[in-house]
Queue: 2 jobs
Job 1
Amino acid sequence: MDDTVNGASDEFIVQLEDVHKSFIMGKEAVLALRGVTLNVRRGEILCMMGPSGSGKTTLLNIIGGLDTPSRGHVIVDGENVVSLSEEKLARLRLRKMGFVFQNFNLLSNFTALENVQVPMVLLGQRDPKRARELLKLVGLGDRMHHYPSELSGGQQQRVAIARSLANDPPIIIGDEMTGDLDTATSYEVMELIARLNRERGTTIVYVTHDPRMSTFAHRVIHMRDGRLAEEQVVDAGTG
Ligand code: ADP
Ligand code: MG
């Protein structure tokens, strides 16, 4: 296969073209994505909504390099993700992507400070000073040596956000980031995400079920049955 990236764009940090994904379950193929074409601008906050099973997580995983499409093109920050080896894909994830999940996914026997450094360690670039700065950035300067069990859900998610920034990635991917948080805490987490976008220019691609949390996006897309069903441009993000 040709390794050069035809049509890679400076304007778009993520370019998906006719992306399909099928999973084999026993004898049946589940068509999770049925031809998704989508560009994400640098510095954009993009929200994805849609019913359970419509393919949102599969799409996020493909953007994040956690999974590869069965068919179609995926370009992330100028790199053709589909043609990368496992090892190169892992490095691309560590350098370009920050991940924030619904259940925080912190390591329970590591402190906040240690958790933030995990992606640095995986890239061979441990930097405790920078990790402390990131925890201060998310408002946890006084909780650095706490274990996850000693933190509230909102605090744990802020540790996860600090961790997502460990290697200063241009993109943050969030799958139901506020799904386990109460309303006030959800707004706090989304305000933090919006601030990172404003102050650092970080591109945000996130999935939510909660229409109130979609107001932080510049654009909201709706998925149905593995396809993009509709799109709303919200402009500057009102959250
Ligand atoms: P959403 O995040 O919108 O709820 P998903 O992307 O998780 O949807 O799932 C889309 C479809 O793909 C569903 O029918 C789901 O069951 C199926 N699916 C997702 N991941 C897998 C997998 N690893 N193996 C088999 N089927 C899967
Ligand atoms: Mg999902």
Job 2
Amino acid sequence: MNTRKRLAAMRAAGAIQQSSEALPANPACVVGQGQRCQHALVDGELNRRLFEYENTVRGRFSPIVDTLKTLSAFQHELDFVSRAQRVAQDRLGYTLPESLLGEAWVSGLDLRALHSHCIFRSFRESVERADIDRASWVERMAINKAFLNECGYHTVDVSPCADGRLQGVLPFVMRIAPNDAVFNKAYAGALFDVEGDIADWSQRELARLSGAFPGWDNTNYLKIAVYHYSTSSPGDQGCAAHGSNDNKAVQAALGRLNELRLAIENTFGIGAAPDILLIGVDTDTDGIRVHIPDASGELNPQRYVDSIVLYRETIDMNADQARNAIETAVAASEQADGWARGQGGAPAGLRRLILRLLEANLSQIEYVIQHHAGRYSVIGHDEDFICAGEATNYVQLRNKFYYAHLDTVEEGAADMDVGIKIFTGLNIRHGLAAPVLVHFHYSSRVPGARERAVLRCKRVKAAILSRYAELTDKGLLHCQMAVSDHEGSERCVFVEDDIEEHGH
Ligand code: ZN
């Protein structure tokens, strides 16, 4: 155990009191004797529910390794298969495929294959139970669909970096409830696909114009790009897609946002463009930097409000004072001079959303203080598997999986290579395989779409197995295919290889 982990564990166990002498400086909250990190604007009950949710989901994965060790210990006994199934059912909540257990007495258990199988199976369980798991906290979220409508938006399209540390960005870091007006599309380095976004924007705007959102026909589309940085280890735990260079990460995300606006204005005329917002996340503390737009919606890398600073400066205030302080910080940013200067204050609706985001994030800062000693003990990668293709959004939790967005392996090779490199350090180094879930969406309203999604899965799987042939041959890479229906009736349903392929 490293020092930070040990200190966190000791503190959690009440073995040491929080004091500035005993702990490394907490980046968000340094308090004196007798004080506590308890902010007036933090929703403690929501934090409690989110923590329960996090434990429920992680609890489906954490017993896997020990269960397999137990199985391995009695694999040569006479009643192995039935005993193994009882242990699996008891500890994991599901049984294992007979094909992976039956031959154990002669050729030994294929623990790598079993491990990958369990990771996929536990993930499927989490997807299937997503609605039940989320039920306790969805209603309590600071930002829901109704609030987004009040701020003037019919759609919020968020593109964080694909880094696993940003997977919980919507429910945890931004406290946005999952709903059908919010879309989460992750890309390495937050470098979202402008053409793809124009298509999504057109589809939503067409839906609005054809009356699909009654009551909020005059609302707009908001595009948010989310970059990230590491305050404790800026040189090497920042965004890998930008070589851990924070400045590049900000400029690249902002560049994409401006390109999207320009593309839509050039195509559909001035005034057509969606609103844009740029947010940075410190992946060590989950604090955020919200860049404040000026009156014309222009963003600036230097003009932002940092929630960690807000938390620290408002910790002693009551709720009203703290809310006023947030408002003052945003106003000060709007009037900034020099490099950060803009033309006027942010548009009213967007400004309202920004104030709510900054306030809601204080709860996440305290969540990390409470459960992770103010800074995650694993500040780097710690994912369970790689998801290649299109990510599912049913499970949004920090470091659940590494995501490589791709339509074809040729096109997504760079992201896929990074994923395999990460898993060489995480799993393969310990003799475990890298589990790769190949996942695509289809729409059941479109005839033949499911078959095409399955075909795409099979092509991508074959390309992955051949690109990393050396690992595949050694049993160090396992692929599972799955598809989901956009309309929601089928969620992350596993597809097996034996399905007939009908032509190309
Ligand atoms: Zn990144």
